[in-house]
Structure formats: structure tokens, C-alpha cells
Amino acid sequence: MKRKIFLVLFIIVLLFSIWEIFKNYRNKLLSVSDHLDEISGVEYDKTGNLWAINDGGNSPEIHQIDSLGNIHRSIRITNAKNTDWEDLTQDDFGHFFIGDFGNNLNIRSDLTIYKIENPIDIKGDSTKAEIIRFKFNDQEIDDKKESKKNFDLEAFVYYKRHLYLFTKNRNKPFDGYTNLYKMGDFASNQNAKMIDRFKTCTSDKYRCWVTSAALSPNKEKLALLGSDKMWIFSNWTGDDFFSGDVEEIDLGMVTQKEAVTFYNDSTIVLADEKFKGIGGNLYTLKIN
Hints:
With 288 residues, this protein is mostly beta strands.
């Protein structure tokens, strides 16, 4: 009897796992080049070309991806260093912002955002960036304070001439909050000021922390990405994205999802890093 029960449970778990994998891959758009196996940010330029960046330790370049997932063109940022590049966003004129602000140990004091011209206006294979340096106005640089490790950063967006940052929570114990910070979009030394926070979930930090963010072209929806979830915000007041409505979307199986952008107001494109042969893909997601 116990053997039969075990067999039934095993089959149920197996079918559930297959379903989760199917949910994740049924919306697969394409696999990206192996040169982008640590993809950490994606963004469409004003003519519909898709650009991507790699995570920390890679070259300080942005890469244009063609319809087959290959790198069509690369642009090197000559005065930049890829310490820990984590996300891409752009302003109303198409200038790109590159977030070099990954802060796993919560001790970095050189958090940086590089601002470059619209990629479609860059004629050669290199360009120079404006540099925005910043720190959190409430951060204490102390790697031993386990309960104050909510200053890692992998997500930001541009909105109404400001940049908005969403933290990746590493607190112990994990409390599920992503903090929202605001700062200017211009080259200077700045303090990012916290304006609100949102609790994603507390079941597992690897499934509940925020790894990328994107605004819809009409600026009416904000997407925050997690490893197997996405949160869509709308109807907010002013610039407090967490003051309106929120919908949680189950993305299926857990992969190292690190990048999200909007193709149009109802279609989201997201990407995961390649890890042990899994991932390294772009996926599409339709939202209402």
C-alpha cells in the first residue's frame, strides 16, 4: 500500500514538474548567443532593435541581438568598467542608462550608472558615457549587519526625468521587501532617497527578490521581475509605483531570470542567464 502511495505521489510530482517546465518554455522567443550567457539587462531602442548587457566581470559593452539570437553589433563604453552591470533603461529621447550597481555584499561605495546616447545615433563601435555616481542615503557600510542588507541592486527605470531603483533584498531573516529609491538622471554625485517599499513574498528569497524592472512605453505599467514571478503595477499616484494596483504573475519553473523590458504596452520580453545548461533564452509574455 505504501509503495502504491509513493508511486502515485512520484507521478504527481513528475507531472507537476513537466507542467512547470512547459509553462516556462511555451513562450520562448529564442535562445541568445553563448557570448550573452550572463545576460542581465535588455532594452529596445526607438527603432525596435533589441540590446543586451552581460553581468559583472564581462566587457563594458552593449550588444544588439538579431532575430536569431546572435550578436549583430557591439558598442564598447570606453570610459566604463563592468564591475557588476545589472540592468538597462532609457529616457524619452532614447538615451540608454546602464546600471553598474550590483552590490551582493552590501559594501560597495562606487555605485555607478552610465548614460550613453541613443544607440541608433552611435556610428562606430565605441562611445563615451556620462557618469552618475550615487549612494543610498540610509545605507550603513557594514557587511556584518545581516538584518541591514537590502542595498543590493539589480533593477531600475527612468520616469519623468528621474531614475527609480528597486533593491534586491538580502536581509537575514528575509522579510521580502524591495525598497524604492529615487534620484536624478544627470551626471553628478548623488544620494538616492528611499520613498516607499513593497513586500513581494517571504517564501524563499531566491523566488521573491527583484532582479530587473521595466516601464511600458505608455508609462502606465511597471514590471518587476523575479526568478519565477513577475509583479505588474498600475494606477499609481505621482511617482510612487507601489501606491496603486498590483498583479502577481506566475512564470513557471525557477530559472535565473535577470532581465525584463516591454516590446509594446501589452507584450513583455524577459531573459534568463544560462546556468548548468538551463536558460539563456528570451521569452515573451502577454499582459492585459
